[in-house]
Design goal:
- The complex is a heterodimer of chains A (549) and B (232).
- By secondary structure, chain A is an alpha/beta fold.
- Helices cover 44% and strands 13% of the residues of chain A.
- Chain A has 24 helices and 13 strands.
- In chain A, helix 3 packs across helix 4 and helix 8 packs antiparallel against helix 9.
- Chain A is globular, with a radius of gyration of 24 Å.
- Chain A starts with a helix and ends with a helix.
- Chain B is an alpha+beta fold and 232 residues long.
- In chain B, the strands form 3 sheets. In chain B, strands 2-1-5-3-4 form a 5-stranded mixed beta sheet, with helices on one face. A 3-stranded antiparallel beta sheet of chain B has the order 6-7-11, covered by helices on one side. In chain B, strands 8-9-10 form a 3-stranded antiparallel beta sheet.
- In chain B, strand 1 and strand 2 form a beta hairpin.
- The longest helix of chain B is centred in the middle third of the chain and has 17 residues.
- Chain B starts with 6 loop residues before the first strand and ends in a 16-residue tail after the last strand.
């Protein structure tokens, strides 16, 4: 496979596309599928055949169109019309309207801030290509960066571009990607591995799933490029078995890429070979931690081990291993294509580029968004997310899942980057963003996340195994209205202990939801303990209504 | 000429210490008579860094490091006995005591127990946390040993002895089952978890030293040498 071959495939694909008069793209990612977009697609296909438009109008499945709350979504090219909330019965109207103008009652304006304020890098093909057709990806410019890297660049040059881009690990911790690649490439040993961490476990987060379902080739391409840069010849994608669609599309993508010689032996006629295997995780949250993930890939129980040695020195089967998150790999093709400096031109001083967030909770527009780093929370929530539903007042936004914290209103104008979020007691995390209104009790939220950490603790180290259970009991006691101020002091002591003595990231960050709610919503804790009252009326200790009555 | 394993010099609790570059902080400290408390460490076994009692402060490191797996480095300044560490150790021990049934006054190994001695040495006077008392089954299927999981601290020493010294549990098949807080240590031979096998293999490896919550039913003189902290 040479650059010319790629161009040929792309040209053929584009030509076929131009011959069509219309192209109806139905979102078939998990979000829309759950509201039966597959039935919509089916009835559209049938309708097109009945009307005799076959050959003129193509109905195809594409990846996530972003605005999940409006699902099922579909777009009609060439007009660029977007329809939301489509039902199978609407197929007839939609097909008829192709020639006669648009259906206003289903229309969803693509000019609204939700779409206009986004900057799509990782998600640039999402909703625009058929994730199960490699030709579609190639027509969108895919695999060109890989061929360029393999034939025109040295591994060091690839690493230099990644370093220049300022890209930081999108799994949450934000370790500079270029530095990690450099460390692995310098590590001694002939056998090295590349692992893609797709074990997305945060409640309310679905970025990785969406990227894998919408554009799996992009992740593969990033991995192969990484393998070339660090000198690895084998890669693993560790993906949760709860993502069957993502797994299926990945497997299709791997097969297609192998067929075209973009994966496997002697890629693009060079001496570089790279193979990728999918490994399924059984849904343990701790397996998102890199050493636990490695143990799981090796077939052992997913338990973390102390670092150092870091996986970059001794990882999978004690070989140097590069582990990056799905989104990190998905950024690589764009960085190679447009250069590290282009990527670094977006974002803030220390956090470059864009970040994908899964926007959920009490917000009008839930869905998947990609925004430049440094955008404020207010812009995300009130412009892109179109604010909270009517009659509800903003209380806090939770970022970073069980490892993150709740950010109150006074920080809404803070830029979203790794440092600022850490400063206010939360973390970037993998990108979950849950908006909460006054009907949420912050003690209850802390309890929810603590229960999650308690169940997901692997049990290896004592502070996390036993400490999270004690913290959960204390929080339960507070919500039941039976706690004393001594319990609160004990809770704070436990937070300190678990944070500083736990073995891995799960335990070290497990107290964050408690610490951040204690920091900004201590009055709610006090109300539960002193007045035996839950201000939001959520907890069983007696709601606000009962007290006033 | 530089020898393969070079010598490093470091400071532990104000004492100048020298160690081979492949030694851990714990080994270096113990060689020089400096005590760092441990529970999951057992000489001759691989270290897992799980009990967190040997955490030490190293100047310049942004977090606490487990002495049992952290290799010495030139010029390291290690503190193993600060007030903060003492508090953490007491709390970790309290968490252990509260986690299962560790009531010394009614325990058969009262006075011969590592956990108890450690608690005394660390100045743990009482447990601040509510006892959780999980109700776990007692395995008395073996003719000589009883496994009482209610006394287990999940340090995995018995498992590592069986695996690494005795070779009774092949490969990677040791495991804890169900939710960790209330799980019995369990071993699998050929994939199927069978707890009784632990008792058997633990018996086989009793002379070299396995470890956990085994109560021996054999006469007292044959009880010596197990690796179990809470049930020697």
């Amino acid at each position: 496979m040479l650059l010319e071959d790629l161009h040929q495939i792309a040209a053929k694909e584009r030509e076929a596309h131009q011959r069509l008069r219309y192209c109806v793209s139905v979102c078939v990612a998990a979000g829309c599928l759950s509201s039966h977009s597959d039935a919509v697609k089916e009835s559209l296909t049938r309708e097109v055949a009945e009307v005799g438009l076959r050959g003129y109008c193509q109905v195809r499945g594409v990846g996530c169109l972003g605005l999940c709350s409006g699902g099922p979504l579909l777009s009609v090219e060439p007009e660029g019309v977007l329809y939301q909330g489509v039902k199978p019965e609407d197929a007839e109207d939609i097909v008829r309207s192709l020639d006669e103008g648009r259906l206003t009652h289903l229309e969803c304006s693509p000019d609204q801030p939700f779409f206009k304020r986004q900057v799509n890098v990782v998600t640039e093909n999402s909703g625009r290509i058929d994730p199960e057709r490699v030709e579609d990806y190639i027509a969108a410019g895919g695999y060109e960066p890989l061929v360029k890297a393999l034939t025109e660049m040295t591994p060091q040059k690839v690493i230099d571009q990644v370093s220049r881009s300022g890209l930081r690990g999108r799994g949450g911790a934000g370790y500079p990607t270029g530095l990690k690649w450099g460390t692995v490439s310098k590590a001694s040993g002939d056998t090295k591995y590349v692992i893609c961490n797709a074990d997305e476990g945060d409640p309310g987060a679905f970025m990785d799933r969406s990227v894998l379902e919408s554009d799996p080739h992009r992740v593969l391409e990033g991995m192969v490029t990484a393998g070339f840069a660090v000198g690895a010849s084998r890669g693993f994608i560790y993906v949760r078995a709860e993502y069957p669609l993502a797994v299926k599309r990945l497997q299709v993508a791997i097969r297609e890429a192998k067929r075209l010689g973009l994966l496997g032996n002697q890629i693009c006629g060079t001496t570089f070979s790279f193979d990728v295997d999918v490994r399924l995780g059984a849904g343990a949250f701790v397996c998102g931690e890199e050493t636990a993930l490695i143990a799981s890939v090796e077939g052992k129980r997913g338990m973390p081990r102390p670092r150092p040695p870091y996986p970059a020195q001794s990882g999978l089967w004690e070989r140097p291993t590069l582990i990056n998150n799905v989104e990190t790999f998905a950024n690589i093709p764009s960085i190679i294509r447009k250069g590290g400096d282009w990527y670094a031109s977006m974002g803030t001083k220390k956090s470059k580029g864009t970040k994908v967030f899964a926007l959920t909770g009490r917000i009008n527009h839930t869905g998947l968004i990609e925004v430049p780093m440094g955008i404020t929370l207010r812009e995300i929530i009130y412009e892109i997310g179109a604010g909270l539903p009517e009659g509800q007042t903003f209380k806090a936004v939770q970022t970073g899942g069980p490892s993150g914290g709740c950010i109150p209103e006074q920080f809404l104008d803070m830029p979203v980057d790794y440092e600022s979020l850490a400063q206010v007691g939360s973390i970037m995390g993998s990108g979950g963003m849950i908006v909460m209104d006054s009907s949420s009790c912050m003690v209850d939220v802390a309890k929810f996340f603590m229960e999650f950490c308690m169940t997901e603790s692997c049990g290896k180290c004592i502070p996390c195994r036993s400490g999270t259970a004690q913290m959960y009991d204390l929080l339960a006691k507070i919500t039941q209205g039976t706690a004393t101020s001594d319990d609160l002091a004990l809770l704070e002591e436990l937070c300190d202990l678990v944070k500083h003595t736990s073995l891995c990231g799960l335990g070290q960050t497990a107290p964050n939801p408690v610490l951040s709610t204690l920091r900004y919503f201590k009055d709610e804790y006090v109300a539960h303990i002193k007045d035996k009252r839950c201000p939001a009326g959520v907890c069983p200790c007696g709601s606000a209504k009962e007290v006033s009555a | 000429m530089i020898p393969a394993a070079s010598v490093k010099t470091l400071v532990i609790d104000g004492t100048d210490v020298s160690a081979r570059s492949d030694q851990t902080i714990l080994e270096a400290a113990r060689e020089h008579g400096l005590a760092i408390p441990t529970l999951c460490h057992l000489d001759g076994l691989s270290d897992v860094g799980a009990c967190r009692l040997c955490l030490v402060e190293v100047k310049g490191a942004n977090r606490l490091l487990p002495a049992c797996v952290t290799l010495v480095e030139e010029g390291m300044d290690v503190t193993s006995n600060s007030e903060r560490l003492a508090k953490y150790r007491r709390m970790i021990l309290e968490l252990l005591f509260a986690e299962r049934n560790h009531v010394c006054s009614v325990c058969v190994v009262n006075g011969h127990c590592d956990l108890q001695s450690l608690a005394q040495a660390q100045g743990m006077t009482h447990v601040h946390f509510p006892y959780r008392y999980p109700k776990l089954d007692i395995d008395a299927s073996h003719e000589r040993f009883v496994v009482d999981d209610n006394r287990c601290i999940l340090c995995t020493r018995c498992v590592r002895v069986c695996d690494e010294v005795e070779g009774a549990i092949p490969g990677t098949s040791w495991d804890e089952v169900s939710t960790p807080r209330s799980s019995p240590i369990c071993a699998s031979l050929g994939g199927r978890p069978r707890r009784v096998r632990v008792a058997e293999s633990a018996y086989k490896s009793a002379p070299p030293a396995p470890y956990s919550r085994r109560v021996s039913q054999v006469p007292r003189q044959r009880r010596s040498g197990t690796s179990c902290r809470t049930f020697p």
